Amino acid sequence: MLEEEYNPPRELPAHLRRRPAPEPAFAYSIRDAVEADLPDIREIYNHYIANSTVTFDEDPQTLKELRAKFRHNAKLGYPWLVAVSPSGQILGYANVSPWKQKAAYRFTVENSIYLRAASTGKGLGTALMTELLNRSKQAGIKEVIAVIADKGAESSIAMHKAFGFKEIGHMGKVGFKFGRWLGTVLMQKSLK
Ligand SMILES: CC(C)(COP(=O)(O)OP(=O)(O)OC[C@H]1O[C@@H](n2cnc3c(N)ncnc32)[C@H](O)[C@@H]1OP(=O)(O)O)[C@@H](O)C(=O)NCCC(=O)NCCS
């Protein structure tokens, strides 16, 4: 018999036991994105390009492409928001872009929202979307369309539904990524 079995160590009473350190609260603030945020935004988006079907992009986005898009949207006065941790880390972003280039579509945008994987499921998407819709309305936008993959983006579909987006269409087999066909669900919300 081992000595510790013979004389088992005594356990400290509950009030003297070391408690695990409390989880740090999930804190963030939301502000307008600036060009210095683009490398972080690119890193967040490229993660989903490489690892998921929530975007149909397959090649990593370059900083040049992202900068051009950022400047174009800024010229239109469209909101582009980031959520930032207390230590300054970009946790996620949300923006809107023109739905189509043709002039009559000018009051209609497509929205986009991406969080760092570790920041999902904690209410941050809801906070960013709330602010994005408020700011879009202030910018004179009337209609917001979400184009969401019909596989692997269940949380996005659920979140858009919760914000009152209505499903307006479903396109089957319009994308092919990771060796399988994918469709898109179109959802629309009027900013009345
Ligand atoms: C989609 C995304 C922006 C949602 O943000 P989030 O912070 O994770 O979501 P929230 O915690 O604010 O939850 C909002 C709602 O989304 C839904 N939701 C969130 N996580 C979910 C999950 N894992 N499964 C199903 N529904 C989920 C719920 O309806 C939830 O509302 P509830 O908490 O009242 O039930 C975020 O998960 C994300 O960045 N995902 C990866 C990228 C992506 O899919 N972007 C959208 C491309 S169209």
In a nutshell, what does this entry contain?
29% of the residues lie in helices and 29% in strands.
CATH architecture: 3-Layer(aba) Sandwich
Bound ligands, named by name, code or SMILES: coenzyme A
Sheet/helix structural class: alpha+beta
Strands of the biggest beta sheet: in what spatial order?
Answer: 1-2-3-4-5-7-6
Main sheet attributes: strand count, strand direction, barrel closure = 7 strands, mixed
**pLDDT < 50 stretches:** none
Tell me the helix content. 25-40%
Which superfamily, in CATH terms, is the homologous superfamily? Gcn5-related N-acetyltransferase (GNAT)
Q: Output the CATH class name.
A: Alpha Beta
Overall pLDDT confidence: 94
* Strand and helix order: HEHHEEEHEHEE
Work out the number of β strands: 7
- Inertia-based shape: globular
Number of helices, counting only DSSP H or I runs of 4 residues or more: 5
What integer value in Å does the Rg equal? Answer: 22 Å
Distance between the ends: 78 Å
Strand proportion, as a percent range, falls in: 25-35%
Question: Which secondary structure elements does this structure contain, and how are they paired or packed?
Answer:
Blueprint: H1 3-6, E1 29-32, H2 38-51, H3 63-75, E2 80-84, E3 90-98, E4 108-115, H4 124-138, E5 143-149, H5 154-162, E6 166-177, E7 180-190
Coenzyme A (COA) is lined by residues 48, 54, 113-115, 120-126, 146, 148, 153-156, 158-159, 162.
